[in-house]
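Structural prep section.
Before we set up the soaks we want a predicted structure of the protein with adenosine-5'-diphosphate in place, mainly to decide which crystallisation condition to try first. Input record follows.
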Amino acid sequence: MSRIVGIDLGTTNSLVAVVDSGIPMVLADKDGSRLTPSVVHYPAGDAPPVVGHAANRIRVLEPADTVYSVKRFMGRRGAEVSVQERRVTYAVEGEAAGPVTFRMRDRALTPEDVSAEVLRKLKADAEAALGEPVTRAVITVPAYFNDAQRNATKRAGELAGFTVERIVNEPTAAALAYGLDKLKEHSRVAVYDLGGGTFDLSILELNQGVFQVLSTHGNTCLGGDDLDRRLMDFLIDSIRMAGGPDLTEPSTGIPTEPGATTGGDAAAEAKGLSPVGTERLVMLSRLREAAEQAKIRLSSEEAVEVSLPFLTPRFSFTYRLTRVELERLTREILLQTRAHCLRSLADAKLEAKDLDQVILVGGQTRMPLVRRLAAEWFGCAEPGAGGARGKPVLNTSQNPDEAVALGAAIQAEILDGGFKHLLLLDVTPLSLGIETFGGLMNVIIPRNSTIPIKAGEMFTTAVDNQRSVLIHVLQGERERARDNWSLGKFELEFAPAPKGVPRVGVQFEIDADGILHVLARDIATGRQVVVPMRSAVDVDDAEVQRMVEESVEHAFDDLRARQWIEAKLRASETVVATRKGLTECHADLEPAYRVSVEAALGRVEEALATEDTRTKVGDVARLIAANAALDEATRALADLMMDKAMEALLRQRGMIS
Ligand code: ADP
Ligand code: MG
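Run finished without errors. Recording the tokens verbatim:
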């Protein structure tokens, strides 16, 4: 069997690495380049797609037929892609629940198709470098990718001819590359990964040579691209103020279906391919490249000249940009990463001083401001000052662009049987559970559980002679089912029986790739259904964040709602049982006792009537008190009913006459 390669399929850059005789190394292509831009150009006619650096160069000239930042669209539906995300120089199609596609002339391509082109190039480069066929790969994804996004990544790998052995979270791979397994027992590490299009912060702990992810937070739409865009906006203003072309028009950068095939002049115009439209796109692409180059150079220089000669035949643009100015423009974007750092620490129940190291990953962390901010937020010891007690060390020893790919290669080697002492563990970003009686969320796997994981619970029916139960799988942090996300529903049938008798086992299993499989079993017959859940709802980071925030914000209301629903279910059960008892035992009861039970019943019914028709919540304290009073009042009745039932049983068996 061929060896397994590790692949960092990045938003901006992709890399392939292997472990060779125990040493992880990134493989270069025939031009000696170790980074392959995740960019694919689709030329006219039958010519094959152009990938990587070559495509990146063509991108300036053929912006409408060159796809970049495709990772942002992986496994996402049209409705989930914002207007801002669609602001690319090629046509993004797909609405509502439909998949995102890119129109390249007369072809509609999926994000998987495009990613597969990048992976095909990495596969060919690896085969050329190693001199042997390469068919197996470990591919990394941001920690916050949901099932749909992970599945799309896996499919892209398969399209490229790989057997995808494992999907691994990027921060976990990075920690491996930093060799953090060599730290002392129980060391804790924060991985700050800021690339071109994603941000993650994960807290890991080393236990007996095993990495455990204590928590993870991030944003799948935050990265170096946003800094480039901010700088571009600034340059667009400067160009306009210097008397150059106005590139701010709303249509800027959003070509309207350049591949549409309907004929006629009006159609040609509507296609956005008029010379003016094309020229503007070329200008914007040049501007984007100039902005990124300036940003990169300002990581090592104090000031640079941004120069765009002959932006139009009569206008050339130059601007002297300083590091201070870049920092002023982009600081606000970088500050957005702080909340994720704090939340990850809070989820891990740690403070910054409990960390041993903070490692930086992703090309954008080369920016001095990023390093300063990270050092400040985590209270790191001054770089170079060595580890002071109680202060984490800011570790920037590895090449931030390559750490993830190297870690993927190490993971590949582990799967191949090498490096046996290491294991990888990841965590669930949100709680998973099912809907139960009264519309409540019953959590089966809590948020931040280590995966792979298997957990289950036993349920029963709420109604007599129910023939099936509906298993409604939910994801989220809210108490009520309707406030969480629905991942899917399916039915389990069983033989009718009185309520409370059927026993239904529900088991959740999350495999090593983070994909959830739900099993429901009728315990009596062993009949079962297993349904793999392809997350129908996108768990993109902004939504995870919102979910967590809302759960905190509504914690009090949610708790009241849960208490109300539970008290109400209890009340309806005891009311029915008490009425039944009063009827059956009527002759045996003192009239005064009957009156006191009736009164207690009345108070429960009054408390139930406090339910607000809008919020479906009533006076919780009053209902709980009324339930308790009814329990107290019916104790004698309950004893009497129990005696009668026992007597009937004994008589039936002929033990008494
Ligand atoms: P991804 O993981 O998204 O593929 P990378 O880790 O390759 O991304 O990082 C790419 C980002 O890093 C780009 O936005 C790029 O502009 C930025 N970048 C690369 N080198 C530098 C540098 N020296 N200074 C600042 N930013 C850089
Ligand atoms: Mg990356």
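Observations: The chain has 15 helices and 29 strands.
Flagged for discussion at group meeting.
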